[in-house]
Design brief:
Blueprint: H1 3-17, H2 26-35, E1 43-44, E2 57-64, E3 67-74, E4 80-85, H3 95-104, E5 109-113, E6 117-122, E7 125-131, H4 132-137, H5 139-149, H6 152-157
Parallel strand pairs: 1-2, 4-5
Antiparallel strand pairs: 2-3, 3-4, 5-6, 6-7
Helix pairs in contact: 1-2
């Protein structure tokens, strides 16, 4: 689907997405956004594919430690992004779930969406939020963010960044004199 087709689909179906999450609901829309060659440009993968061979794809409902992420994006075997999809206007319901998936998958990144609001996480914190309108209207800005977000080196830098309360405290060497 093109950006224009996605916009038309969203505008036609968004009222239905208020009550439908799975099947032909908002999850189907999110998958179409992921497949869009002008945006994420991901292909739908197969569960049988070995993780070391996954590249620029997503799979549905991947299970880890007894929990099921709605979708998991594999940029490559190292940058893996669990995704939680909620009904339109019900994004708050997925906040605890996306954190659980990040923990289960031992991944720093996560994505929570209700189709309209797209929250990109790093280290359990929201890095950036886009609306579907912003993604579709300013795709160049979104793509700049996305390309930086999924770079291996940026992913690994996040393991060493001070976040949360840690950034307020510096460990200083004790004066031995």
């Amino acid at each position: 689907m093109s950006i224009n087709e996605l916009r038309k689909l969203w505008n036609t179906e968004k009222e239905h997405y208020l009550s439908a999450e799975v099947g032909s609901g908002v999850q189907k829309f999110v998958k179409e956004v992921f497949k869009c060659s002008e945006l994420f440009n991901l292909k739908e993968g197969r569960l049988s594919t070995d993780i070391s061979k996954r590249n620029s794809e997503f799979i549905e409902e991947a299970q880890k430690k007894g929990h099921r992420a709605d979708i998991v994006i594999f940029i490559n075997s190292e940058v893996v992004i669990p995704v939680e999809v909620e009904r339109y206007t019900n994004i708050k319901a997925g906040e605890k779930q996306i954190i659980q998936y990040q923990t289960d998958w031992q991944k720093k990144y996560g994505l929570l969406t209700d189709g309209y609001c797209w929250r990109f996480y790093n280290n359990l914190l929201i890095v950036k939020t886009f609306t579907i309108d912003e993604i579709l209207e300013n795709s160049a800005e979104f793509l700049t963010f996305w390309r930086e977000y999924i770079k291996n080196e940026n992913y690994y830098i996040s393991f060493f960044e001070k976040q949360g309360q840690k950034e307020f405290y510096e460990i200083k060497a004790a004066n031995v004199d």
